[in-house]
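Explain this one:

_____
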Amino acid sequence: QVQLVESGGGFVQAGDSLTLSCTASENEYPMGWFRQAPGQDREFVAATNWDGSTTSVADSVKGRFTISRGDTKNMVFLYMSSLNPDDTAVYFCAAAPIYSRHAASYLFWGQGTQVTVSS
């Protein structure tokens, strides 16, 4: 069982930047970020393979969000810039046995961290 803990969420203004962090209890799992806004399905945001050499971001955040791994490989970061109200959601970190953009591939999930963007 992999434990995941997210941090870094908060309340920001449109145009601001924010970095989310996720710490895993084990190293070398492919990891991803997903988000869920009220009344909407959980959607893919970004993913990285086990060492950070391969990454992917959703088209909706491309050019604004970047995913990266820490040197110890058990931490993953989501750098978010040019935030807008549509980015308001609970952001979840997840770990999977394979690199994937699909939520169904992820076996372990954090509790989520709220990001609220005000206009």
